[in-house]
Specification:
Layout: E1 4-14, E2 28-39, E3 42-49, E4 52-53, E5 60-66, E6 69-71, E7 74-76, E8 79-89, E9 94-108, E10 121-132, E11 136-147, E12 161-165, E13 171-181, E14 190-199, E15 205-216
Antiparallel strand pairs: 1-11, 2-3, 2-4, 2-15, 5-8, 6-7, 7-9, 8-9, 9-10, 10-11, 12-13, 13-14, 14-15
Length: 220
Amino acid sequence: MRRISIAGAVVALTFATAAPALAANPPGSASSGSADFAKADQAFKVAPLAVCDVNPEAAGTVTGASPAVSRTGLKIGETTSACTTEVVDPAQFLTKTRSEAKGTGFDLSALAAPGLKGPRLKIASWTVTCAADEKSTTAGWELKGMSGWTGLPQQIPSGYVHDIKASNGTVLAKAKFTDTVFPVPNDGSLAMTLLRITFEPSSGYTGSVTVGTVACSPTP
């Protein structure tokens, strides 16, 4: 089975001033994923995994970790996160931050049931980051060891939507990659979801599964 790895830097946004207005996004946060989906009278929920939040008031790293989880039709291995504040210039009170989430062993088998005849979607590991200083924010990502993603392009543009189909061509779900959101008006902050799989009615499921979320804002 074909296994692919992809990576990219999604956004490098420069803010015009070193003193931004109050950001719509947090100083920095990260989570390795979550899930909330249902079928008939069964509900499957995974609370946000390996959550961390930047402490903008003190230098150092805040970490998060979650053990492997298993639900009917979905497995996720161990996940971790790290949210770091670094003092760049103490005299000028300049800092920079980095929020990063990592995960392993994603395995969505819900669509591969005999009645659906869809693909079994796997991702060996993933990383998503959001970095910020007083002038800019940047998001980056990497997906390794992907299988079951038939027709996925080798270069994935920001916001790309991929149809997940059954063997007969029926679209069972849609996968949106690197969905990046900016506040309006744009204050230089951003939030990005690496991957969100949303079930279509034809699958018999409702809800979605998320892999990797980050957010960050220009530092003071």
